[in-house]
Amino acid sequence: MFVLAELKDNVRIAPELFGLKLPEAIKDEINRKLANKVLLNVGLCIALKDIVKLGDSIILPGDGASHTEVNFRYIVFRPMIGDVITGKIRSCSREGVHITLGFFDDILIPPSALQHPSRYEEAEQAWVWEYPLEDGNTHDLYMDIGENIKFRVSGEVFEESSPIGPPDQEVPSSSTGASTSGGAGSSGQESNKTPYRIVAAINESGLGLLSWWVQQAQEDDEEGGEEEEQEEEEQEQDSGGENE
To answer: In this protein, which residues make up the domain named RNA polymerase Rpb7-like N-terminal (predicted)?
Structure first.
């Protein structure tokens, strides 16, 4: 789930930080620059692990800061395909079940990857697994917000989010009102891009809400206990008949 990424960067240290030791100043600057940021095709940066190599520090003409080439290792959140992780349900929509890990929220279980058959309850804003019973009926198991859920990572999506330029100048609504509203909408869509998201699945035995399988295990234990009691009673009856 967490990996070490070997990275290289040219770190700028401002003159007011020259009083600190160079490694300490560089560590603070790297964490300030990368912590909680997504690097394309790398993952979500968590914290600096260590500095591998420090190059020579130089001062460029017209800039009083020092520039140092640094090789370092950074702790990154990027689960592998097939990893099984436990999170919490953040919300449900027709797009699927949205999951959070507390520090990462962009996890989606699409409807096709839910337990089959499942349906979406608009009034409850929740997905429901129609669990089949032995008598042919079904029992509704709701996926409520805040429930702990175990899922398998099935895919990942990186998107490059380019900086958005300044908004277009306002144009009188009488001339091109429709075109200005369309432009604003497209800019809003670009700004809402998610740089890194995970696609998950729970359509396997043992995956899904933890409460489902705990309840099933308790029922299996109860059934097993009843069978053992019946066997003990039969053995006692058999032994009693032999004694007679």
So the answer is: 8-64
